[in-house]
Specification:
The chain is an alpha+beta fold and 742 residues long. The protein has 27 helices and 17 strands. Among the domains are: 143 residues, Alpha-Beta Plaits, CATH 3.30.70.270; 100 residues; 94 residues, Arc Repressor Mutant, subunit A. Helix 1 packs antiparallel against helix 6 and helix 18 runs antiparallel to helix 21.
């Protein structure tokens, strides 16, 4: 019979293990399939998002390229030069110089442009951002190093592209368009393939995918740089089938070179470009590798537990027999045992049960000792008095306002004082126990079997008396928190946590008071501090508007602590969030803040103290902002003049250029300069340049064109016009007059 019972014990452990293992294995199999599908969906969705972002970025750049080309196509210079007669006269060359300068300026508008030139069919010449050239020169400069055939390049150059097209011209990726109003020329914009390839490579690294960009004819434009695998993919007929699909946007699975891929096809309506992204299935499988590892680990763990359980069954069964023998040896009665051998196991359990009943009676007789040990463990203190298991009790926490870092003997003395004061106050009403916990004191009041007349109101009134006594005669200012009334020692820990939680509410309710049973049931953790309010506060502070910033702080505190019931956790989060905003603004203005957010909650006890600290920080930042405003206003006028003196020889120096440099609006800059100097900004630039021209006319033998380049004028014509406007005579006349005088 013992063997049968032993098997029953064995089965009682093995069967649950087998069921757990089976269910777990089935669960992990399901989890694997679900995870694979989710990872696949998420990965494809992320890739879709990334491709769309890439399309938007490229479309944005290409939109600038197309717009700039269109603007050049409708310019007056294009119309003049389209029907030019050779040889060129002075005006033609001047128009070419203007157009070259315009090209140079427009090339810097977007990082997608590597270069631009215009081919005029009738005159068979090309204008670049430097000057005009015959086609062979442009070929040598841009296309020869690409290994392009010059005849093929010339054919591409003379084509007709009224709608514009992105294609390869002379081995370089370019956007070519024939202006609608002047069909006798083509505008060729060479695209910066290095920049585009960087965008593609960033996408491929982040998404672990291969990307190609094709034009509407299926010609591969980008995505082939130094990637053997991708070139092999492009050799497959399957890729052409993918490209010829009718759907502009689609996802599908394909097999290429014995490898599985998920293909994402996107089409840009703006540029007409096609995007093909290949995601390897292997990369998705790798992401589920941890599931296999976890599954294997769990199987090993469960089998190990099963073996350990079998060993423990045998060991514990032997221990049961040994336990009974020891109990018999020390004299326990065996009268309750059933004599029949076939019930031996049940008799053993029954026998052990009867022994436990006897032990329970002994424990009940020593109840007071047991209760003292339970209290000690429950609230981390040492209880040396008595409390009944079934009595009503209430727990309080007393926290001194100035937390003393005292020795153990002094803490015991404070505990003794608090105990005697409260024992005297509640004499005949409740038994009081006081335990020291770090820098706080836990008070347990045993109210007996019934709550006497007066109840909680009487307890709070008496505690107010005790608190006043401690403050007046013992110089102990404190905050007191009370729990609800509970019954039974099992509720002691719950009551202690409730009282401890109440102490935290001094942040909201204030210190040096009695806090009774504060709960979170009707409170919210959602504080009112929107992004719009944060931006508004930051703007007020950065602009030095102290009064508006202070009103905003008052509004936020009133809205969160007066108009709504915010929980302690919500209050802490609000304080940290708001304080972090001030720290961020302070750092931007190079102002040091002593307290970090975590330290603020430790060093300041109440909301009012924290509010005052924040207002002090705001006042400090606003003072710094106002001081910096006063300094900057006086310095910027001199800085602008110094900038003009340093850069006057730059042809691009103008009001807009200076405004960008100093972060001004152009119209505001002109008004500001006029207020600071009394002169118009453009007139000041021209006058300064004229003075430099005078120096060069007298001190050098340079030609007018050379003088123009050194003094910031586009050519000699501009020098003559501006010089005569401000001096009254031409530069040549000025040089002759001054040399005669010299």
């Amino acid at each position: 019979m013992k063997r049968i019972i032993k098997k029953q014990l064995l089965y009682s452990l093995i069967i649950p293990y087998i069921l757990i293992i089976s269910v777990t294995l089935m669960g992990y199999v399901c989890l694997y399939h679900i995870s694979m599908e989710r990872i696949k969906e998420n990965h494809i969705e992320i890739n879709n998002t990334a491709v769309n972002k890439l399309i938007r970025e490229i479309d944005y750049g290409m939109k600038d390229v197309v717009q700039l080309s269109n603007n050049i196509g409708i310019s007056n210079e294009i119309s003049k030069l389209a029907s030019i007669d050779l040889p060129m006269n002075y005006q033609d060359k001047y128009d070419i110089a203007i157009l070259s300068k315009e090209l140079d300026k427009r090339n810097s508008y977007t990082h997608f442009i590597e270069g631009r030139y215009i081919y005029f069919k009738e005159g068979n010449f090309i204008i670049s951002n430097r000057y005009y050239y015959v086609p062979d020169v442009i070929y040598e400069e841009f296309h020869k190093q690409e290994g392009a055939d010059i005849k093929k390049w010339y054919q591409e150059l003379t084509g007709y592209f009224p709608m514009g097209k992105i294609t390869f011209i002379g081995g370089k990726l370019a956007y070519i368009i024939t202006p609608l109003q002047e069909e006798s020329c083509n505008i060729i914009t060479l695209l910066n393939t290095d920049r585009l390839n960087i965008l593609i490579q960033d996408y491929e690294k982040m998404q672990q995918a291969n990307l190609y960009i094709l034009n509407e004819e299926g010609e591969v434009l980008l995505g082939l740089e130094n990637k053997n695998e991708k070139e092999q993919l492009l050799d497959m007929k399957k890729l052409q089938e993918i490209f010829k699909e009718d759907a502009a946007n689609m996802n599908q699975e394909v097999e290429l070179n014995n490898k599985g891929y998920f293909v994402i096809k996107k089409s840009s309506k703006e540029s007409g470009l096609q995007y093909l992204s290949f995601i390897s299935k292997e990369s998705l499988t790798y992401q589920t590798k941890h599931i296999f590892i976890l599954l294997g680990t769990m199987v090993v763990i469960f089998i190990s537990l099963l073996l350990v359980g079998v060993v423990l069954i045998k060991k514990n069964y032997t221990s049961i027999i040994n336990l009974i023998k020891k109990l018999e040896a020390i004299g326990f009665s065996k009268d309750n045992r059933i004599k029949e051998d076939k019930q031996v196991v049940y008799t053993e359990v029954g026998y052990i049960g009867s022994i436990l009943d006897m032990l329970q009676k002994d424990i009940h007789n020593q109840e007071e000792i047991v209760v003292e040990n339970i209290i000690s463990k429950a609230i981390n203190g040492i209880v040396e008095r008595k409390i009944l298991l079934d009595n009503r009790f209430i727990v309080g926490i007393i926290e001194p306002i100035v937390k003393p870092e005292t020795e153990k003997q002094e803490k015991k003395m404070n505990e003794f004082i608090i105990y005697n004061v409260l024992s005297e106050i509640f004499k005949g009403y409740a038994k009081v126990y006081v335990i020291t916990l770090d820098n706080m004191y836990a008070v347990v009041m045993d109210l007996g079997e019934i709550l006497q007349e007066g109840g909680i109101e009487y307890i709070i009134t008496q505690l107010e008396r005790g608190k006043r006594f401690l403050e007046k005669y013992m110089q102990i200012k404190c905050t007191i928190s009370l729990s609800n009334v509970y019954i039974g020692i099992k509720k002691l820990y719950l009551a202690y946590q409730e009282a401890k939680r109440g102490i935290e509410y001094k942040i909201v309710l204030g210190s040096e008071r009695i806090i009774y049973c504060v709960g979170d049931n009707e409170q919210t953790e959602n504080y009112q501090y929107s992004m719009e309010m944060e931006f508004q506060l930051i703007n007020y502070i950065k602009s030095g508007e102290l009064n508006k910033a202070m009103r905003t702080i008052d509004y936020l505190f009133d809205m969160n602590f007066l108009e709504s019931s915010l929980s302690i956790d919500g209050a802490k989060c609000f304080i940290i969030d708001l304080y972090s905003t001030l720290i961020k603004v302070a750092k931007e203005n190079k102002i040091t803040i002593d307290l970090m957010p975590s330290e603020l909650l430790k060093k300041l006890d109440t909301i009012d103290e924290m509010k005052k600290a924040m207002k002090a920080i705001i006042e400090k930042i606003c003072e710094a902002v106002e001081t910096r405003k006063k300094i900057n206003t006086g310095n910027k006028g001199d800085a602008i003049i110094a900038y003009i003196w340093e850069n006057y020889a730059d042809v691009n120096l103008n009001v807009a250029n200076i405004a960008d440099t100093f972060g001004f609006n152009s119209s505001y800059l002109s008004r500001f300069f006029k207020e600071q100097t009394g002169e118009n900004l453009l007139m000041y630039i021209n006058k300064y340049r004229v003075e430099k021209v005078k120096e060069l006319l007298i001190g050098t033998n340079l030609t007018l064109n050379e003088i123009a380049l050194q003094s910031g004028f586009i050519n000699s014509v501009a020098v003559i016009r501006i010089f005569k406007k401000y001096v009254g005579i031409t530069p040549t006349e000025y040089r002759i007059i001054n040399k005669k005088i010299g």
